[in-house]
Design a protein that fits this description.
Its main location: membrane. Heme chaperone required for the biogenesis of c-type cytochromes. Transiently binds heme delivered by CcmC and transfers the heme to apo-cytochromes in a process facilitated by CcmF and CcmH. With about 150 residues, the protein is α+β, with helices and mostly antiparallel strands. It has two domains: about 1-35; about 35-140, Nucleic acid-binding proteins (OB fold (Dihydrolipoamide Acetyltransferase, E2P), Beta Barrel). The chain contains three helices and seven strands; from the N terminus they run αβαββββββα. The protein has a five-stranded mixed beta barrel.
């Protein structure tokens, strides 16, 4: 009788383990396209990612680089004070997007240009994403009073 209970307990534990591993694998598989790693411009220039890799880049829109093209096409450079990466974007920019302001873009780095599929700007006059602040502090550009 005891061995039957013990065997049943082992079966339940084994089934629970298989279910846990299976659900973890399914969650990881489902999220593979939803995870975008953040990189600063310096990191992108040091180790350029593959053209197929989607990631986020953040920093300050470099002064004097914002160029509006035909329609909704925009070109600018994003910098963290240590390096600058050219960015292209086709779409409507956020209202608070301007030079010398923080931004985060999602896209791919192809042939030396970050091709953004999404651009986010700070949402008020004092906010800057934590990743951008950390990257700017690392380069010695960020000061606490900066917005």
């Amino acid at each position: 009788m005891k061995s039957l209970k013990k065997q049943r307990r082992i079966q339940i534990i084994a089934l629970a383990t298989v279910a846990l591993v299976g659900s973890t694998a399914l969650i990881g598989y489902a999220m593979r396209d939803g995870i975008n790693y953040f990189r600063s411009p310096s990191q992108v220039m040091e180790t350029p990612p593959e053209p197929t890799e989607t990631f986020r880049i953040g920093g300050l829109v470099e002064e004097g680089t914002l160029q509006r093209g035909q329609g909704e096409a925009v070109r600018f450079s994003v910098t963290d004070g240590g390096a600058s990466v050219p960015v292209t974007y086709v779409g409507v920019l956020p209202d608070l997007f301007e030079e010398n302001q923080g931004m985060v873009g999602t896209g791919r780095y192809v042939n030396g240009v970050f091709e953004a599929s999404e651009i986010l700007a700070k949402h008020d006059e004092t906010y800057m994403p934590k990743e951008v602040v950390d990257a700017l502090k690392e380069q010695g550009v960020y000061r606490e009073g900066d917005s």
